[in-house]
Amino acid sequence: MNYTQIQLGFIGAGTLGTALATTLAEHGYQITAVTSRSRASAVRLQSKISGCRIYPTPQQVAENVDIVFITTPDDSIAPVAASITWQPHQQVIHCSGAHSLDLLAAAQKQGAIAGSFHPLQSFADLTQAQANLPGSFFAIEAEGKLLSFLEEIVSTLNGTSIVLRGKDKVLYHAAAVFACNYVATLVKLAVDLWQSFAEPVQPAQAISALMPLLKGTIANIDTLGLPQALTGPISRGDDETIKEHLHSLQETAPALVELYKELGRQTVPIALAKGGLDNIAAMRLYDLLAKRK
Ligand SMILES: NC(=O)c1ccc[n+]([C@@H]2O[C@H](COP(=O)([O-])OP(=O)(O)OC[C@H]3O[C@@H](n4cnc5c(N)ncnc54)[C@H](OP(=O)(O)O)[C@@H]3O)[C@@H](O)[C@H]2O)c1
Questions:
Q1: Both 115 and 134 in a single domain?
Q2: Contacts of 210 (CB under 8 A, 6+ apart)
């Protein structure tokens, strides 16, 4: 089957929808229809893809293509799907990481074939999304021809796919929040601490200073894996350093003490697995990092 003969439409011309549509178009897929809440977003997508037409409603997109991607925010996927009269065997895909095909139940009830296609990637803006989409990991939920179609897209994008069960999507997405969003939060907390120095360092400068550390850590995880990539006072069993951290945080940023301890408690088993700690040192660390009574 030649997938480039299939006409694709997008409902929701935001970051992911526009990045996916333009990237697929560059690889020869036919993106022939788009609609969005605002015309400006639809025009932005359409202007990047020849042969793509703007339709005023999701219904008209669905009526004019073979496969519909609903790339609205998660909360709008089910209402949008329910607002459309679907043709039997028409295909519809959402791109949410947290939700199963349940969001498309209204379309399935009318005989449409539903799938989900989640790039395990962080798309903060369009340029960066277009750069990061190829080579990503993709979680797919689909069957039959639609599964083959989605796997073909992944291979076109030089990505890797995993077929997930619907019931695993929420945990899969919670894991992504740890590995992505909370990394950004932890960097923000680190930058905030730099503002408490006797000579505060501007946030932009602090981020630049932390960046080689972050990139080095990610490179270590990539090349050495866990637990080998773990470094720092817990991996070495440096009790005194940890006591000083806790003391200093208590004075300067008391709201971070419990978070530091919780992350520390989660780090001890990694240090144990790496072999830098024995059980007695680990017990001492757990004591030091115990929750406030
Ligand atoms: N961003 C990421 O890192 C990422 C990664 C993986 C998966 N995803 C998934 O991709 C999907 C889209 O996320 P996103 O980050 O691209 O969001 P986004 O940038 O906010 O884009 C969503 C777009 O949907 C449009 N929209 C909202 N409600 C609509 C409706 N009722 N009908 C038609 N269009 C509507 C918006 O309209 P207007 O602009 O026209 O107002 C907006 O352009 C979500 O399911 C998300 O979970 C995102």
A1: yes
A2: 187, 190, 191
pLDDT digits (tens, 9 = 90+) for 233-243: 999 999 999 99
Q: Which residue in 31, 36, 43, 29 sits closest to 13, CA to CA?
A: 36
* Nearest protein CA to atom 25 of ligand 1, as residue: 12
Q: Is residue 146 one of the residues assigned to a domain? A: yes
Q: Is 38 in the pocket of ligand 1 (CB under 6 A)?
A: yes
- Determine whether 259 is exposed, middle or buried from the number of CB atoms within 10 Å of its CB (0-12, 13-18, 19+): middle
Atom of ligand 1 nearest to the CA of 122: 3
pLDDT in tens, 119-133: 999 888 889 888 999
Distances (CA, A) of 91 to 17, 24, 99, 152, 181: 17, 17, 17, 15, 31
Cα–Cα distance, 160 to 141 (Å, whole number)? 14
Question: 236, exposed or middle or buried, with CB in 10 Å at 0-12, 13-18, 19+?
Answer: middle
pTM of the model: 0.89
- Taking the centre of ligand 1 as the mean of its atom positions, its distance from the CA of residue 13, in whole angstroms, is 7
* Residues spanned by the domain of 159: 3-164
In this prediction, residues 35-46 reach a mean pLDDT of 97
Pairing state between β 91-94 and 113-120 = parallel
Query: Which of 258, 259, 269 lies closest to 234 in space, CA to CA?
Result: 269
Residue 293 maps to a domain: no
Q: Between the CA of residue 182 and those of 38, 163, 169, what are the distances in Å?
A: 31, 25, 18
Strands 53-54 and 30-35: parallel
Q: Which of 20, 22, 37, 69 to mutate to test the pocket of ligand 1 (most atoms within 8 A of CB)?
A: 37
Q: Does residue 186 share a domain with residue 159?
A: no
For ligand 1, say whether the CB of 20 is within 6 Å of any of its atoms: no
Q: What is the whole-number distance in angstroms between the Cα of residue 187 and the centre of ligand 1?
A: 25
Count of domains in the chain? 2
